[in-house]
Every structure is written in C-alpha cells, then in structure tokens.
Amino acid sequence: MSAVKDALDRLEENITRVVPEVKRLTEENAQLKNVIDELQEELEGLREDNSIRLREIESLRRKRKEIMTRVSRIRERIFSLEGPLKGSTG
Q1: What are the angstrom distances between the C-alpha of 50 and each of 22, 43, 53, 62?
Q2: DSSP three-state, residue 1
Q3: What pLDDT, on the 0 to 100 scale, is given for residue 87?
Q4: Is the sign of the CA dihedral 20, 21, 25, 28 positive or negative?
Q5: Between residues 34 and 89, the one the model is more confident about
Q6: Looking at residue 30, what is its pLDDT?
Q7: What is the CA radius of gyration of the chain?
Q8: Element at 59 (helix H, strand E)
Q9: pTM, to two decimals
Q10: How far apart are CA 37 and CA 30, in angstroms?
Q11: Which is nearest to 64 in space by CA: 56, 76, 53?
C-alpha cells in the first residue's frame, strides 16, 4: 500500500505544481487572443486607409495626366500662333 500512497503523493504534488502554471498559461492565452483581435482590427483599418489612399493616388494620377494633356494642347496653340509671326518679322 505504501507504493500506492507514494505514487498518489507524487501525483498530487505534480498536480499542485502544474495547476497554477496551467492557470497562468490560460490567462496569458486569453490576453494574447485579445491582442490578436486588436491587431486584426488595426490591420483592417490600415487596409481600408490604404485602399482609400490608393484610390486618391489613382485620381491624382488621372488629373495629372489630364492637366499635362491640356497644357500640351495649350502649348501647341501658342506655338502655332508664334510660327507665322516669326516668319513675317524676319
């Protein structure tokens, strides 16, 4: 019977040692899950911000291209006006 009692005593000691560690790990796991949730929300927000900024960049690129095209047309008109003037003054 002594061997059984010793085995049960060791088992009880092991359980007594392990239970607080399991409890601590469970709490840490819950905290880490909260951190993961917060980071996922932050990531989603950043993705939305990024998407908005990408649309803004594309819009600015289109506007820039339109402005460059219009400036080019205006320059062509100005140069077409200067052409006959240079020839007639020379």
Answers
A1: 41, 10, 5, 18
A2: coil
A3: 53
A4: positive
A5: 34
A6: 98
A7: 38
A8: helix 2-89
A9: 0.59
A10: 11
A11: 56
